[in-house]
Amino acid sequence: MIRWIIWDIANTILHYHYELVFQRLARLTGKEIPRIRHLIGGDYFTPGSLIYDADAGRIGRKKFIRLLRKRLGIDSRIPNKRLAWCFMDCFELPNATRTLLHFLADHYRMGIISNMNPVQWPHIRETFPTLHEDSGVFAFHVLSCRDKLVKPDLRIYALAFGKACAQSEGALLPGECVFIDDREENVKAAEEFGMRAILADESGPWGIARNLADLGVLLPPADYYPPPVVPRVPSPIRGMA
C-alpha cells in the first residue's frame, strides 16, 4: 500500500522550458548557444558544471551569478537581477498536475526531492503557491542546493525517507513510498533504495496518474476541483542588486 508520494519538480510537477534560459543568455551576451553551454560547463549533471555545482550547494546564489558573469564575459553594467531573471519565468504548472497534487494531498502524505538551483527556488516557491512550504500540500522539501546532496546519490533518498518516517504514524517501509522523476537514473536509484518509482515522460500528468493508479493510488473524480490559487506577494531577489 502506498502511503507517501514523493515528487521531483522540474519536468515532473513543473514543465521546465530550459531552452529559454539559453536563448536569454544568448541575447544578453551575443554568443551562440553551443558556446554558452560549453562555457557554463558542458554536462550539467556532473561535477565541474556551473549548473551542477549550484544545484549541489557548492556555490550560493551570489557566487553563481558572479561566476556566470565571469565565464560568459557579461558587462558589469548589466545588473545581477537581469542575469538571475534568465533562469526564471521558464516554468509552467499544468492545471491537470495542480488538480492531481491537491487531490492526492487530501489522501496521502507527499514530499519533494529536487536537484534545485538556488537562484530558481525562491522564484518557484513564490510563483507557484502549491509548491510553497506553507501550502500544506507537501510535508517536506529536500532540495539539493540546501541539503548538499544531488540525485541519484542514495543519501538524498535516505534523507527524504527519514523525514517521511518522522512524520508517519507507525513504522514506514521504503516500499510504501513512490518516487516520481523524469530522469531514469534517479528513478533507478529510488528503486535501489527500496521505493516504488515512476518515470515521468512526455505523457505528462496523465501518464503519472495512470502509473499511480496501477499502484492502487486513488485518483481525483471528474467533478473534483482544486482550491483557488491565492496569489502570494512576490519576494525581491535578495542579494541580486
TrEMBL record:
It comes from the Bacteria. InterPro entries: HAD-like_sf, HAD_sf, PGP-like_dom2. This is Haloacid dehalogenase. It comes from Candidatus Liptonbacteria bacterium GWC1_60_9.
